[in-house]
Write a structure and sequence with these properties.
The chain is mostly helical. The protein folds into 3 domains: 21-113, Fumarase/aspartase (N-terminal domain) (Fumarase C, Chain B, domain 1, Orthogonal Bundle), CATH 1.10.275; 118-212 and 228-366, Up-down Bundle (Fumarase C, Chain A, domain 2), CATH 1.20.200; 375-434, Orthogonal Bundle (Ribonucleotide Reductase Protein R1, domain 1). It has helices spanning 5-9, 23-29, 32-35, 39-55, 61-79, 92-104, 117-153, 173-196, 217-223, 233-238, 241-268, 295-302, 304-318, 333-356, 361-370, 375-386, 390-406, 416-420, 429-433, 436-442, 451-466; strands spanning 158-163, 166-172, 200-201, 228-229, 275-276, 358-359. The chain binds arginine. Arginine (ARG) binds next to helix 7.
Length: 468
Amino acid sequence: MKKSSLDKQNKIWGGRFSSSPDKLMEEFNSSIQFDQLLYFEDIEGSIAHTEMLSKQNIISKNEFLSIKSGLEQIRKEISNNEFNFSTKLEDIHMNIENRLVEIVGKTGKKLHTARSRNDQVATDIKLWLRKKIDKIELSLKTLQQTLIEKSEIYYDLSMPGYTHLQVAQPVTFGHHLLAYVEMFGRDRSRLLDCRKRMNELPLGSAALAGTSYPIDRHFVADRLDFIKPTENSMDTVSDRDFAIEFMSASSLIAIHLSRLAEELVIWSSDSFNFVKLPEKFTTGSSIMPQKRNPDAAELIRAKPGRIFGNLITLMTVLKGLPMTYGKDMQEDKEPIFDTVRNIELSIINMDGIIRETEPIPKNMMEALQRGYPTATDLADYLVKNLKIPFRDAHHLTGKIVLLAEKKQSSLEDLPLEDIQTIVPNADLTVLDVLKIANSVSSKISYGGTAPKNVLKAIKNAKKRFLKG
Ligand code: ARG
């Protein structure tokens, strides 16, 4: 970091201080290493703030214009990597203000009139997070689209559906993928919901009490695309609920992604071999030449660790914190940034994986045949056709499964005579219900897995999630 004039004197805290902070303290206290990420929003907020100050005759029009052009120059310097950040200046707010004074002279010293870093930082984070939420929400929509397109191709492909990771009933691959489309749909609505509460502007709450200057907070709110200013200055500077809400919405996204990731890991394992993962999202082993490891999926599976951790970090920082701002709150940034980065990466990597993952129908069918997945259909047949009460039908079906197991046969291939040794009045029609394709196509209840339902669900999902 380049030497600034402040390095020599360290007068950022003015006359109250006669000595510089300890070197240790300087390192510990500063946030510029990470909060420089907020520079764009910090400048955006400062321009709106000073425009308001000039409209209210708190500063002159010319002063505003000169501050604005200085801030725009700083924005360029930072985006071109030409800005020298200093830990002596603590954070992004002080770094920008100090540079502004260097550029425009003493007018720059008016920038901080009628505000505090406390309302400023809350504003910056809201502005920054809103943009990130929009991006994350859009990438979830893209992922939904990818899943919907896949399910369109495989709307009638039978595969085992599991409970307890034991083969339960046949389902379609399309139906299975659409389950995740629902999860990501709820995730998107949670994000948008928490974004709504980010639409109240903190700026103008000043340090904690408001300000005696005749400011116009509604004007600034309008300029920065907030619906209204916040209501209570003390609440405002101490509030990070919006970040916690975002991080808990992200935690749910991470949970959903990790479940899909785990399924991909299981499905692509040698033992299952239900899908072939795209090579580009796998790695080899440095020792075992035959290996192809699902690293991207495994990383997505692991990300909830840090994403939940970040949520717990911020909740713990805020718990028990007395009104209003405390330096504790500077600890909000790294977890917020880390969550954004990792949730974004997880979503786009998952999208990349899903796009080119192909099922292996033959292996899905073999697993189905091993698992007696039409046993429930058989029990239902006994109820519907032979008027046997369900519990008895369940018992008889269990015996038939045991028989199939002894004969090392699938239910589909079990001869009628064998079935009749247990249910004497079963006739040929029973063989139909044992067929996997028939089982799947019989699940026509709303939300069920029958291929024709899946086609309808796809149409519906496109309307619900992809329009607009
Ligand atoms: N860097 C600080 C933070 O992120 C900005 C607010 C500092 N306010 C203060 N009164 N020290 O929380």
